[in-house]
From TrEMBL, chain A:
<dbReference type="InterPro" id="IPR000049">
    <property type="entry name" value="ET-Flavoprotein_bsu_CS"/>
</dbReference>
<dbReference type="GO" id="GO:0033539">
    <property type="term" value="P:fatty acid beta-oxidation using acyl-CoA dehydrogenase"/>
</dbReference>
<keyword id="KW-0249">Electron transport</keyword>
<dbReference type="InterPro" id="IPR012255">
    <property type="entry name" value="ETF_b"/>
</dbReference>
<dbReference type="GO" id="GO:0045251">
    <property type="term" value="C:electron transfer flavoprotein complex"/>
</dbReference>
<dbReference type="GO" id="GO:0005759">
    <property type="term" value="C:mitochondrial matrix"/>
</dbReference>
<dbReference type="InterPro" id="IPR014729">
    <property type="entry name" value="Rossmann-like_a/b/a_fold"/>
</dbReference>
<comment type="function">
    <text>The electron transfer flavoprotein serves as a specific electron acceptor for several dehydrogenases, including five acyl-CoA dehydrogenases, glutaryl-CoA and sarcosine dehydrogenase. It transfers the electrons to the main mitochondrial respiratory chain via ETF-ubiquinone oxidoreductase (ETF dehydrogenase).</text>
</comment>
<feature type="domain" description="Electron transfer flavoprotein alpha/beta-subunit N-terminal">
    <location>
        <begin position="25"/>
        <end position="217"/>
    </location>
</feature>
From TrEMBL, chain B:
<keyword id="KW-0496">Mitochondrion</keyword>
<dbReference type="GO" id="GO:0005739">
    <property type="term" value="C:mitochondrion"/>
</dbReference>
<dbReference type="InterPro" id="IPR036318">
    <property type="entry name" value="FAD-bd_PCMH-like_sf"/>
</dbReference>
<dbReference type="Pfam" id="PF01565">
    <property type="entry name" value="FAD_binding_4"/>
</dbReference>
<dbReference type="GO" id="GO:0008720">
    <property type="term" value="F:D-lactate dehydrogenase (NAD+) activity"/>
</dbReference>
<keyword id="KW-0285">Flavoprotein</keyword>
<dbReference type="InterPro" id="IPR016164">
    <property type="entry name" value="FAD-linked_Oxase-like_C"/>
</dbReference>
<dbReference type="InterPro" id="IPR004113">
    <property type="entry name" value="FAD-bd_oxidored_4_C"/>
</dbReference>
<dbReference type="GO" id="GO:0004458">
    <property type="term" value="F:D-lactate dehydrogenase (cytochrome) activity"/>
</dbReference>
């Protein structure tokens, strides 16, 4: 077993930012807006680093697909404890249409190239909420998957995963190599400290192009339109219960 | 040593309050007319939805988290930028209308109460984080930015702003009340960490207390206006920007809990730890009543005894040193073995128990309200004042669990009162006054971090700061 873990990290608009839709409804405003690592990816990085600290795995490699700025996100992962990074360059139109299918093809190719034992991803990204990349990657590699993980423990060549499901918690045991996706309660990610940020500057980030991995970035999806949720309408006050019932009937609610 | 209310002073203050009442009713009608006059001017500055006369909105902006009753303003305005604040202030000035700045309404001393009505400036729409300079360790923020929002924004830079009062308060509001928190023993309070302020004065003039855009780490240029406004509680101007000093996030943090056979032992340990020069980050004291409340509220099982919650920050190696020294000291004072918390989750659970003290205290008597005292004394006087205060609590038959930042000599009695029991409320009031006077007699202050607000103006005089009350 190589003891190598691949962690996918995505650069998204920071969770605290108020999102605004572009005037032409083609997307959301991203220029000049604060971006940071997807919160679920932070949890994934933290889990990988924890496994390394427990000496259950040997190396953590952080991967991000995107334009030049994605390197900042990889640096944050390095500051949290990842050993090296891989930046898959995707920019311009290709980046605008980049989605889970293409990313999972990239991750699958990298996993084979790097001989990864585990791939840990966030369960979903907070910008598209797709929740597909982990599952697609596992399918492309024909690897088992432990998704929505709230607890992960290694047991030799197997991984025990406690999954958060609608009915409660489900515990499964899967063989490695495997794909895991991190849910909210898996851990509390550490902050990048100044000394670690300094050390991270010296760690290597390799540059790779999707074509080098034999991946076709053509998207099968086209975004037609992006709209804001409807504005909240003013309510109205009524004097009596009879009035209330009448109004409810008028608007067809009862 | 104790200040006595002589009969002539009592009559004087009674007469003063009667005159005040009569004056107030004349003032009221004059003020209402003034407000009506300026409404359209306000609307042209802030827009239609930037001005509110709604009763619910006014009530929300007339109270904070203290026990003081709601004193709603006549109108609430929501400016978006310093130019709007300045224009609004000028109108208020020309029409003699009181101005009340409002951040998050999380104060503990009734500072936002509009005792004479007027215009509340709710600054929540000004919420930008401007000018972050990670390499210089400084950032400038507007009043709508809270401390947790700032720290979340900073998380990738390796920096943080350590002043942490209980609430998620507005940073400019924290500057206005000179707030402090559990980390003050190592990182200081707002007074040490505000580098520059942009303030709108009552006539609309905009000033920068250290010069516009300036952020040197130290200066000896001119008067220290920055620290004049820090702690001024909205009486000298409206703070619209504050430049803050940031710190590196500690490499490693370790927390520990230690219980003691007596209050004296716990507080003696605190004093000795500080005198040994250990750069401890947090040192919090909880008395047996408080620990019991926390155990019940947060389902914990700490021994019910005077307890210290400690936190150490630093590199792994310096932590080992700090911890060894601290443990030696506590054990020499018959402290228990340390209960440790090293990883983030366990540490957060431990500190949550401390931060929930406010609610844990109220849960002791469901339906009660809580009022927090806030005295601060020099370290060497701490054992004496806490022991005397606990005795006073017993004698007055009051429920007042004690929690505090003993590293600064500051502690809070969380007085839990039945809102319908007037006698108990009166006893609490007298107890709080005795406590404040006890602190003053020991060379301390009547308010370590919450501010003077509405309730402590008389005590401010006794502290020897009468000239300050005349400004208010």
């Amino acid at each position: 077993m190589s003891g190598r873990v691949l962690v996918g990290v995505k650069r998204v608009i920071d969770y605290a930012v108020k999102i605004r839709v572009k005037p032409d409804n083609s997307g959301v405003v991203t220029d000049g807006v604060k971006h940071s690592m997807n919160p679920f990816c932070e949890i994934a990085v933290e889990e990988a680093v924890k496994l390394k600290e427990k000496k259950l795995i040997k190396e953590v490699v952080a991967v991000s697909c995107g334009p030049q700025q994605s390197q900042e996100t990889i640096r944050t992962a390095l500051a949290m404890g990842a050993d090296r990074g891989i930046h898959v360059e995707v920019s311009g139109k290709d980046y605008e249409t980049l989605g889970p299918l293409q990313v999972s093809k990239i991750l699958a190719a990298l996993a084979k190239k790097e001989d990864a034992q585990l791939i840990i991803l966030g369960k979903q990204a907070i910008d598209d909420d797709c929740n597909q990349t982990g599952q697609m990657t596992a399918a492309l590699l024909d690897w088992p998957q432990g998704t929505f993980a709230s607890e992960v423990s290694m047991d030799g060549a197997q991984v025990k995963v406690v999954r958060e499901i609608d009915g409660g918690l489900e515990t499964i045991k899967i063989n490695t190599p495997a794909v895991l996706t991190a849910d909210l309660r898996l851990n509390t990610p550490r902050y990048a400290t100044l000394p670690n940020i300094m050390k991270a500057k010296k760690k290597k980030i390799a540059n790779v192009k999707p074509a080098d991995l034999g991946v076709d970035l053509t998207s099968r999806l086209e975004v037609l339109r992006v709209d804001e949720p409807p504005q909240r309408q003013a309510g109205m006050k009524v004097e009596t219960v009879e009035d209330l019932v009448e109004k409810l009937r008028d608007t067809g609610m009862v | 040593m104790f200040f006595v209310m002589t009969p002539s002073r009592r009559l004087l203050s009674l007469r003063r309050s009667l005159v005040h009442c009569r004056g107030v009713s004349v003032e009221n009608t004059g003020r209402k007319a003034a407000v009506d006059r300026v409404l359209s001017a306000f609307r042209s500055i802030c827009g239609e939805d930037g001005v509110s006369l709604g009763e619910a909105i006014r009530e929300q902006h007339g109270k904070d988290e203290s026990v003081h009753r709601c004193r709603p303003p006549d109108v609430v305005v929501f400016p978006h930028c310093v130019e709007e604040v300045s224009a609004l202030a000028k109108i208020c000035h020309d029409n003699n209308l009181p101005i009340i700045p409002f951040g998050t309404g999380t104060g503990l001393e009734g500072g936002v109460g509009a005792v004479k009505g007027g215009v509340c400036f709710s600054l929540r729409n000004m919420e930008q984080i401007l000018d972050l300079h990670p390499e210089d360790f400084d950032v400038t923020v507007e009043p709508g930015v809270t401390r947790k929002a700032l720290n979340s924004h900073l998380r990738d830079t390796g920096l943080w702003f350590p002043v942490d009062p209980g609430a998620d308060a507005s940073l400019c509001g924290m500057a206005a009340t000179s707030a402090s928190g559990t980390n003050a023993v190592r990182y200081g309070t707002m007074r040490e960490n505000v580098m520059n302020l942009e303030v709108v004065l009552s006539d609309g003039t905009v000033i920068h207390t250290a010069g516009k855009g300036r952020r040197p780490r130290k200066t000896s240029a001119g008067y220290n206006l920055t620290n004049l406004f820090v702690g001024s509680e909205g009486t000298l101007g409206i703070i619209t920007k504050t430049t803050l000093r940031l710190y590196g996030i500690p490499e490693a943090m370790v927390s520990a809990v230690c219980s003691f056979p007596s209050v004296q032992a716990a507080v003696d340990s605190t004093v000795q730890i500080l005198q040994a020069g250990i750069p401890i980050a947090r040192i919090e004291f909880l008395d047996d009543v408080m620990i019991d409340a926390c155990n019940k509220f947060s389902s914990l099982s700490y021994p019910v005894a005077p307890t210290l919650f400690l936190e150490f920050h630093g590199s792994e190696r310096s932590l080992e040193e700090q911890v060894t020294m601290a443990e030696e000291i506590t054990q020499s004072n018959e402290g228990s073995d340390f209960q440790w918390a090293r990883d983030t989750e366990t540490r957060n659970r431990l500190w949550k128990a401390r931060h929930d003290a406010w609610y844990a205290a109220q849960a002791l008597r469901p339906g009660s309200k809580a009022y927090s005292t806030d005295v601060c004394v020099p370290l060497s006087r701490l054992p004496q004042i806490i022991v005397e205060t606990k005795k006073d609590l017993l004698e007055s038959r009051l429920t007042g669990p004690i929690a505090g930042h003993v590293g600064d000599g500051n502690f809070h009695c969380l007085m839990v009162v039945d809102p319908d029991d007037l006698d108990e409320q009166h006893r609490v009031h007298l107890f709080a006054e005795r406590l404040a006077r006890r602190a003053l007699a020991l060379d301390g202050t009547c308010t370590g971090e919450h501010g003077v607000g509405l309730g402590k103006r008389a005590l401010l005089c006794e502290e020897g700061l009468e000239h300050d009350t005349r400004l208010e």
